[in-house]
Design a protein that fits this description.
Elements (H helix, E strand, L loop, with lengths): L3 E6 L5 H16 L4 E4 L18 E5 L3 H7 L6 E6 L13 E4 L1 H14 L5 E4 L8 H16 L5 E3 L9 H14 L4 E5 L2 H14 L7 E6 L3 H5 L6 E4 L2 H16 L8 E4 L3 E3 L12 H13 L6 H8 L3 H11 L4 H17 L6 H7 L5 H12 L3 H10 L1
Parallel strand pairs: 1-2, 1-3, 3-4, 4-5, 5-11, 6-7, 6-8, 8-9, 9-10
Antiparallel strand pairs: 10-12
Helix pairs in contact: 1-8, 3-4, 5-6, 9-10
């Protein structure tokens, strides 16, 4: 039996699209389905000549209205993947649709910020254009949530991301962050926007998460690599979307009528990191010091450098830390380095020597000594104990 020829119309430059594609791949590996997959190398050309493509089925990103319009007249089975809509009439007619639940994505982020004890909220979105309908849905969901709680949430859409306009766009973002009442929790429409927000906070010298707590959406590993402050992010069920879309297309290829099928896939959860772990601080000095430590602890900073940043003497800073956190500045720096190391150790592919260097330990031997002193075990033993505990 010849394999079915299936086109995947996605933008593999985006983490969400890659996760959907990964889910499709997992479905194929876990079943006996035989598909010959086609995916355009340059996503900008993904719809060119699609009417002449002699294939058997298509799974496509319908968040792009050009894709949706182009495929409307095709006779082959099509499964749509995209964002959910509060208004049912916005879904394409007679096309099976697998959606990420935009309202629940925002709800997970919003509830998390409430749990941190915050009472002010804002949303950093995107300018409304046809390809950003999912972003507009998330913004509307945020507005509905704060309104139902009797609050007034601030919304900032900023500018489209482009190299030419980035300098001015960042200046405007810094100005917006500086103007906000604090402390405040901000939900960013994507991790890419959240990363911009974290950078703006650094430029504006606004403490994260002491003054501004940030949550993104996507759980994008690239955003973590490019941010000094580790980012809290809602994990979309994108791989489950891919698996579901593949299953629906498989049914259609064997005669099933799935034209009215609509599946809303909820978020997997939230990856909580430093950017949102807001702890109300009585001392502004401690809040500023912890902001600095989160950025630079792994670069080998000392207590004197933290005190210089805060603008007070080392002795006075130590008094504030002992009163508020019941520990020294040095121990706070060390705790941050250890937390980073624990996160990296869960990835067995990262050599231990790299973990030590990237977490600011002067040598692998010193990291071993610290783990033995703090946890009474080696780094690898710590991972095994955590996994089995």
């Amino acid at each position: 039996m010849n394999p079915h020829r299936i086109a995947l119309l996605f933008n593999a430059n985006k983490v969400y699209d890659r996760q959907v594609i990964a889910g499709i791949g997992e479905y194929l590996k876990s079943t006996r389905v035989q598909w010959d997959l086609f995916m355009e190398e340059d996503f900008r050309c993904r719809t060119l000549g699609i009417h002449r493509w002699a294939g058997d089925g298509i799974i496509a990103d319908f968040d792009d209205p050009v894709v949706a319009e182009t495929l409307a007249s095709l006779s082959v089975p099509v499964v749509a993947v995209g964002g959910s809509y509060a208004d049912d009439s916005h879904y394409p007619a007679n096309v099976p649709y697998v959606a990420t639940d935009n309202a629940r994505l925002v709800r997970v982020a919003y509830d998390h910020l409430i749990e941190q004890g915050l009472q002010r909220f804002a949303f950093y979105g995107l300018p409304p254009v046809p390809g950003n309908r999912w972003a507009q849905e998330r913004e509307a969901a945020f507005g509905s949530m704060v309104s139902s709680d009797g609050l007034s949430g601030t919304v900032y859409r900023g500018s489209p991301t482009s190299a030419g306009g980035w300098g001015r766009a960042q200046e405007d973002l810094v100005e917006w962050v500086t103007s906000l009442p604090r402390p405040i929790g901000i939900i960013a429409v994507t991790d890419a926007r959240a990363r911009q927000l974290l950078q703006a906070c650094v430029v504006a010298d606004v403490a994260v998460p002491g003054e501004v707590a940030v949550v993104g959406i996507d759980n994008d590993p690239m955003a973590q690599l490019l941010s000094r402050i580790s980012l809290t992010s809602v994990i979309q069920g994108a791989e489950e979307m891919g698996r579901t879309a593949a299953q629906v297309l498989h049914q259609m290829l064997h005669g099933g009528d799935c034209s009215t099928t609509r599946v809303l896939v909820p978020p997997v959860g939230i990856n909580v990191q430093a950017s949102s772990q807001h702890q109300p601080m009585k001392s502004a000095h401690v809040m500023r010091a912890r902001h600095y430590i989160r950025q630079y602890a792994c670069l080998g900073i000392k207590t004197e450098q933290v005190a210089d940043y805060v603008g007070i003497s080392r002795t006075l800073l130590e008094e504030h830390f002992k009163r508020e956190l019941k520990q020294t500045v040095h121990q706070t720096i060390l705790d941050h380095k250890l937390a980073m190391a624990r996160g990296m150790l869960s990835d067995a592919s990262i050599p231990l020597a790299d973990v030590a260097v990237r977490c600011g330990f002067t040598s692998l031997q010193y990291m071993y000594a610290v783990f033995r002193r703090e946890y009474d075990c080696t780094p690898r033993q710590f991972v095994e104990l955590a996994r089995n505990g």
